[in-house]
Amino acid sequence: MMTQTTPKDHAGEQDLDLTSSALDHRIAEQATATNGTNGHTNGHTNGHSNGHSNGANGHAPEIQELDASRLVVHRADPTAREVPDEVTAVSGLETICTDHMITCTWRVATGWEAPELKPYGPLSLMPTASVLHYATECFEGLKVFRGYDGKLRLFRPELNAKRMLMSTLRISLPGFDPKELEKLITTLVAVDGPKWLPRSRPGSFLYIRPAVIGTQPQLGVQAPREALLFITASFMPRMDSPPGGMKLHTSPEDMVRAWVGGFGYAKVGANYGPSLLATQEARARGFGQILWLYGKEGYCTEAGASNFFVVWRTKEGKVQLVTAPLDDRLILDGVNRRSVVELAKTRLAGEVEVVERRYTIDEVMEAGKEGRIVEAFASGTAFFICPVSLIHHRGKDVDIPMGEKGDMGPYTAKIKQWMMDIMYGNEQHEWGVVVTKE
Ligand SMILES: *Cc1c(COP(=O)(O)O)cnc(C)c1O
């Protein structure tokens, strides 16, 4: 009895890692399932396998993997809808989707059905569907760009696909091979790109929104045994250069967006609905987004649903590009964030030091007071690289320099230009993935 391990004995280091290791385990399981040759497992074994996992038992139905090559195509009438002019398209009053969407149904016993490309339109769900009650939803956001060379490009789509797998498994929805998701995304933009993102509009983009939801129509708090993956493409306004820059208001003292042990690192719907109240209040006071702080120390984490960067001079005079770290799993590992970090590390080496660490709003306020803030910006797919001109915190404002032309600081401008060149094909780079077979 004395040597027996009770749960309490594990209360030390091990417990801290439980969720992350469960998640890592499922991601690894998915990789094994999809890299193996049998193609029968679907990496969704926790409580879901029902003993069908390998098809080893001759009577068990085969569990199908997500397989883009099985796509069933139902074309929309290409003359039914007209592409709006550019002004209407990006007015932001409504989300105008392209002709098609892709959907794919999953069931625990049989796995993923053949994906379907079909006319864009409403989904059919039971009012008791899991997603409507228990927030079993996650999503992605990426853009397809019409290059100045006439080509369509995605920007590092494999990162979105991998992140979607992670988010999906975090909320106990079914796993899939991220490469198959990437293929489905590519197919949708290859089909709708020529009409909705015509060659006559170089320098423009469409926004792609993949999502997975739990559709099982059974109430009860449990992992769904039915799910739906869907992908749409739509217009979206440009939000990367609000007049006068983006103004941030720090989060209310009694509210956190995400917490250590929470799920801020996953793109799950549950992170966003509850944040809207503070955002709405801030908007009413003329601010663009909330700068989400964390803990009594007031660590700066993210700006709205974008990552946040400050360029400042240290007291010793060193120029640093500072952003919150990933290791505490508070913030989302943004594709744009990663790209900014990687570009700054290589192309601004010797000029700017890139620092991923926890830093507080007090450090930012102090740097502001001492005139050490060089510039600041938010980064993400929706807002792209959006210059920040002001931070309001507990009754005080910090003004942030916006460069000579007043539109953005020189480092922000450089980084933004590098990214745009890759996205729109002015620079041939492995991050800009050309969509062939348009
Ligand atoms: C989507 C998102 C971002 C930006 O990620 P990207 O991959 O760069 O688009 C940042 N923070 C949050 C909370 C997000 O939801």
UniProtKB/TrEMBL annotation:
Q: What is this protein called?
A: Branched-chain-amino-acid aminotransferase
| Any one of the GO BP annotations | L-valine biosynthetic process
Origin organism is Echria macrotheca
Keyword terms of this UniProt record: Amino-acid biosynthesis, Aminotransferase, Branched-chain amino acid biosynthesis, Pyridoxal phosphate, Transferase
One GO CC term of this entry?
mitochondrion
Q: Which family does it belong to?
A: Belongs to the class-IV pyridoxal-phosphate-dependent aminotransferase family.
Q: Which domain of life is it from?
A: Eukaryota
Q: Which cofactors?
A: pyridoxal 5'-phosphate
Q: Does the keyword Phosphoprotein apply?
A: no
Q: What is its EC number?
A: 2.6.1.42
Location of region: Disordered? 33-60
